[in-house]
Amino acid sequence: MYDNDSSKQWNERLREAMLARDKSQTDISRATGITPAGIKKWLDGAVSKPKFDDVFDVCAYLEITPEWLMKGIGTMNEKAQPDSNMVSIQQVDYSGSCGFGVMNFEDFPEIRTLEVTPAWFNKNFSFYNPRDIKIITALGDSMEPEIRDGDAVFIDITDRETLRDGIYLLVVDGEAYIKRVQKLIGKKIALLSTNKAYKDIEVSLDSDIEIRVLGRVIKSLKVIDI
Q1: Contact at 8 Å (CB) between 52 and 225?
Q2: Which of 70, 137, 164, 180 has the fewest CB atoms nearer than 10 Å to its CB?
Q3: What is the pLDDT at residue 2?
Q4: Parallel, antiparallel or unpaired: strands 87-97 and 133-139
Q5: Contact, 93 vs 114, CB < 8 A?
C-alpha cells in the first residue's frame, strides 16, 4: 500500500532527498550531466515539467523513485521493486529529433524499463502489445506543442510497413526525425512540423534519398504524466 506525500511540491521532495542523501547541486550535476543552472531551476520551482530522461537520471542517483519525486506516491526510501502484475515498456537509447535530425544507433540498446500498472497501460494503450512499444526521447521543438523537447515518445515499432497520414519516427539519409507524414501525389511524401517556424520537407520516394520508417508515434508524455 502506498503512502501519499503529494501535499508538497516535487522540488520540495527533491530538496528533502538531497538532504537525506547528503548530495549537493554540484554532485547531481556531475553525476547526471544536467547543468548546475538547470538543477537550480528545479530547486527554485521554475520547472514544472522536467525532461523524462533527466528525472530518471536524478532519481537513480539519489536512489528514489520517479513516482515519489514527481507525485509523492510511496516513500523516499522505497525502491521500485519488480511486480509480476506490472506491465513493462522498454525505453531505448534512440533519440528522435523534432528539429534538424540526429544520428542514432541501429541496435536500440535498452536504457531502462518503465513499470506501469495494467490499468494505466489499458487506459493509454488498450489496443497494443507492450512488447511492440518502445520509448524514445524527443529532441528539439519542431513538433511543439504536440511533442515537446524531452518528452517520452511511445513508438509502435510494428507499424512501419505502409505509410499513412500520422506522426512517425523515420530515418532520412541516416538521420532520425519525428515528423507528421502526409502522402502527396506522384510517389511523394511531406514531412510536416507542427511548429510553423520550421519548413516542411518534401521527399520523392523514387529519389536516391534513403527513407526508413522505424515506427508510428502513438503517444508522448512528460514523466509527471506517467
Answers
A1: no
A2: 164
A3: 42
A4: parallel
A5: no
pLDDT at 3: 46
C-alpha distances (whole Å) from 108 to each of 24, 155, 213 are 33, 12, 14
**Secondary structure (3-state) at 34:** coil
The CA distance from 168 to 189, in Å, is 12
Give the cell for residue 181: 507524414
- The answer to whether the CB of 158 falls within 8 A of the CB of 218 is no
Judge if pTM exceeds 0.85: no
C-alpha cell at position 106: 541501429
Query: What is the Cα 204 distance to its own chain's centre?
Result: 30
pLDDT of residue 112: 78
List, for the chain, all residue ranges whose pLDDT scores fall below the cut of 50.
1-3
Query: What gap in Å lies between CA 16 and CA 62, rounded to an integer?
Result: 11
Query: Quick one: pLDDT at residue 90?
Result: 86
Kindly state the cell numbers that stand for 30: 556531475
Q: SS3 for 209?
A: coil
Among 204, 137, 128, 138, residue whose Cα is nearest residue 173: 204
The total of other beta-carbon atoms located within 10 Å of residue 50's CB is: 22
What pLDDT, on the 0 to 100 scale, is given for residue 5?
Answer: 59
Per the prediction, the chain carries an average pLDDT of 84
